[in-house]
């Protein structure tokens, strides 16, 4: 089953951006990828970010491939980005 959202770290390699830039642009409403939830609303000390795969797909113009369960899709022991293909 596919997760309902991505983290900035997961979306960054797909979009060709650094996670910090994605978080900054989402906070300032420059980039609409999903939810940028301020600490006041969560009761936590840090912002939370939920990036919707459909919004990423609309930007890149193709479907994201779901992650393999277990995280070892190429046998190397490294888990690639969500949208990476061989």
Description:
- With 86 residues, this protein is of the alpha+beta class.
- Helices cover 34% and strands 9% of the residues.
- It has 4 helices and 2 strands; from the N terminus they run ααβαβα.
- The protein has a two-stranded antiparallel ribbon with strand order 1-2.
- Residues 71-80 and 82-86 have low confidence and may be disordered.
Q: Please work out how many helical segments DSSP would assign.
A: 4
Give helix and strand order, one letter per element, not per position: HHEHEH
* Strand numbers in spatial order across the main sheet: 1-2
In what range is the share of β-strand residues?
A: 5-15%
In terms of quaternary structure, the protein is single chain
Mean pLDDT: 83
Please give the alpha-carbon distance between the first and last residues: 21 Å
The portion of residues assigned to helices is 25-40%
In one word, what is the shape?
globular
Number of DSSP strand runs: 2
Rounded Rg? 14 Å
Main beta-sheet strand count, sense and barrel state: 2 strands, antiparallel
Provide the low-confidence segments as ranges. Answer: 71-80, 82-86
Structural class: alpha+beta
